[in-house]
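INSTRUCTION: Work out how this chain folds

Fields: amino acid sequence; protein backbone structure tokens

Chain under study, with its fold:
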Amino acid sequence: MSEIQRKVAIIGAGVAGLTQAIALKTKLKFHNFTIYEKGSEVGGVWRANTYPGCSSDAEIHWYSLSTDLYPYWNKSHGLQPEIQAYWMKLSKKYNLYPHITFNTKVLSAEWDDVKQQYTIVAEDVFSGRRTMSVAHVVISALGILEAPKIPYEIPGIRKFQGASFHSAQWPSLIDLQNKRVAVIGNASSGVQIVPSVSEDPSVEVVNFIRSPSWFNTRPHIPYSDTAKWMFANIPLMMRLHRAWFMFRYIHPFHLPMGDKAPQRQRDAMTKYILDNTSDRYHSHMIPDYPPGCKRTVADSGFLKSLCRSNVKLNFDGIAEIVENGIITKTGEMIPFDDIVYATGFIGERYPMHIRGLNGATVQGYYDAHGGPTAYIGTAIPDTPNFYLIIGPNTGAQASAILVAEMQVAYILQLIEPVLTGSASSFTIKAAPTDTYNAKLQKQLSHSVYVHCSSWMRTNGTGKAFQPFPWPATVLWWLLRRPNWYHYTAVGAERWAWTRRRKAVKNILKCAAVLTLLWSYVSGSAQRISHEMWQATTVTCSYLSKFALRL
């Protein structure tokens, strides 16, 4: 089939979706794809999260596409505006905007096994108008931080009369000057919001903490003009800088850890927290779970901000939200003008209806396996030509961009035969998926991740669906190329024949090289033996003559 007869649908114009789109254009020279984006601009989480202080936790040179490094980042960690600008620039560079349907939410995608294609239903987020389209491949680039989690379980949450919103839905026109602001949550978003908002001394901030976090220092170090010039003009300088971050993150996980390593880590983090907080908070600031069980929070100014007179921490717990404030579990009523919910995202449910073979759905598969489950975080049984980027258990100790690039490279190998017309579909088999996840969950059952309640586990205490328990290099190895025996191929006779022919060619080439090598080695051996025999003969003759002279 020609390219125009095959179509790809990408759900989400965030970093994963754009990475996939760029790869389709540059690696496969494929252009017949549509990106469905519910927002009005590209960027995904970097479009949605506009709260004050929003920045990357990973070093920005590592949190960039390996194909499009950028020498002019202002600091070691990028702020939201410049990260989104980076992805907007790439979207223009690769002419992705004509492929994007903005303000459009995909409601469902259902597989037609006869036509070997998906029927996609999408809805305009403003008018509610629905449209239908078809695609032969669907790639979900939503990640797991797509649906904001608002704690509706708190009594009275709907009674509050002031402004209340999730950190990922920050109102663009809100003015917090001279306001009393409650920030509920103390993880990655909360610790960025508190120091940024409290820079204005007229804003009174109370951070409600249910469970304290472990912190690592992560200062935002400015890049000098000289450093930027070097990155831009000295060959390999920027790549070496990026490689250093990769080595620093990935290398320790290949080293054996002694029995005392976890305690040393805990002691170091405890010291860091206590050294940087007021004595009045010391009894509350140290978590009762081991480091790493929940996501370790990057401290780029939160602990220092606790010294400000307009910042307070509250560990009493929230009993109820009322019209003009919050009542704690100690009975204290604290008045507020605004409430910010820095309470994370819903990661354990897939946010739309995807139906594959025999009525199977993605969410149904998740439910049947105790939470989000996939084959190497990328493919799901009974859903042909459907792939996930940043799917279940891809939370390796690495940049999310690096993980996305690994998965994109893997997905390209799976969809290329479909896009060229050599095959109709590929579906991951249930058996290898079960085997892979059994090993993964067994490894996780002995890890730190099961020692606390966390958003990375189903319902907080169930299956760990986000962490990858091995070094990132293992994930790279698993994703370097598909194991085709793990997939069921349909309409792939031409592809299978081409693959067999290529395999035979490779075997013949290998046999020819080995034959030549053996001939060379054998000839060399014979030549060496002959030369040694001649040398031995000459030596013996000489020694004989020398002996006669004596």
